[in-house]
Design a protein that fits this description.
Elements lengths: L1 E5 L3 H13 L3 E5 L2 H10 L4 E5 L1 E2 L2 E2 L1 H9 L5 E6 L4 H10 L3 E4 L4 H16 L6 E3 L2 E4 L4 E4 L2 E2 L4 H12 L5 E2 H9 L11 H15 L6 E4 L3 E4 L3
Parallel strand pairs: 1-2, 1-3, 3-6, 6-7
Antiparallel strand pairs: 4-5, 8-9, 9-10, 10-11, 12-14, 13-14
Amino acid sequence: MKLLIIEDEAPLRTALIDYLRQDGYVCDAAATYEQAHEKVKLYQYDCVLLDLTLPDGNGLDIVRTLKADGSAAGVLILSARDALDDKILGLELGADDYLAKPFHLSELNARVKALIRRRQFQGQRHLLFRDLAIFPDQALVLVHNQPLTLTRKEYELLLYLLANPGRVLTKESIAEHLWGDVADTADSFDFIYSHLKNLRKKLQEKGADNYIQTIYGLGYKLNVS
């Protein structure tokens, strides 16, 4: 899962990144409104963690931008502004949750997981797809009720496909989702092929159907038919 952390306080931003990366998230970060606006315009995220008070703008305008662009990202507002009016305005603009500072990182992580479950997995703790059962909280994948061992990137790739059934995902979008904006510096995205190949092989060795379809010249798609 890919997160954008918009926070101008450097120590808190670093603590959030370190904590959430340990739980397997790909984390991009922005310290200013301008940086945040550029990232939400260029990239897609599963969840945006948003500080309201930024040095060069109001974080609520980022919520307005996400909603105007039809972004599928969940939005969790983080702010020291614990006024009721701020909470109501943020939620009415389309934010999914609001957490007042200071907060425990474990509570933040639980809220991020709950938000992603609500938006991408119909609020369920597990996801079923044909012969697969996935338990995101445990990073557990079962094929025909047998555990499947995947690398971290193979697991994230499978989850990204399952979150976008029937949609063609380009190599560029997969690279950005799994590696963050550092993927922009890659000379090519051919390494995606190797991860797809290994994922397919492991699924089929467990008896799974071949439902990851290559769309030549475009990318890959999880075939739902």
